[in-house]
Amino acid sequence: MQFGTREELYNYLNTFDFNSKKDIELASVYFLMEFDNHVEPVYFLHFEDSWFESPCELHRFPLKDDEVIEYVKEMYQTDSLSKAYEYEKILQKDGWHYDIDVPQCSPFLPNEVKIIKVLSEKECLDWLLKHAKW
Fold this sequence. Notes:
This protein has about 130 residues and is of the alpha+beta class. The chain contains four helices and eight strands, in the order E-H-E-E-E-E-H-H-E-E-E-H. The chain has a five-stranded antiparallel sheet with strand order 1-8-2-3-4. The chain has a three-stranded antiparallel sheet with strand order 5-7-6. The chain starts with a strand and ends with a helix.
């Protein structure tokens, strides 16, 4: 999908069914975007009547599969442990635990952008890992 103005992009985001692309309830949705001859996943946060874009930064730390349970217990409220564990398992690969950080920043997208693909959190992680420069 090609957009020539921010208004067109925001109208699209206003009507997009984010739940249709989520892996699980706690997961996020990302948009693989092309702009200025560059491709990267972008996260959009809706607040009041506005959309805020964020770049995606991949972070990782060593964590064995059996340590994920303890990590979840430390990071989440007790009433959501099963959902949190299900979510955090998406971000666990080969002894590493990943975090897709989406820092708050000033708007950086130009008016003309293209959405190449809508990505689930797992798909975004896979894309970032494929393009990571560790």
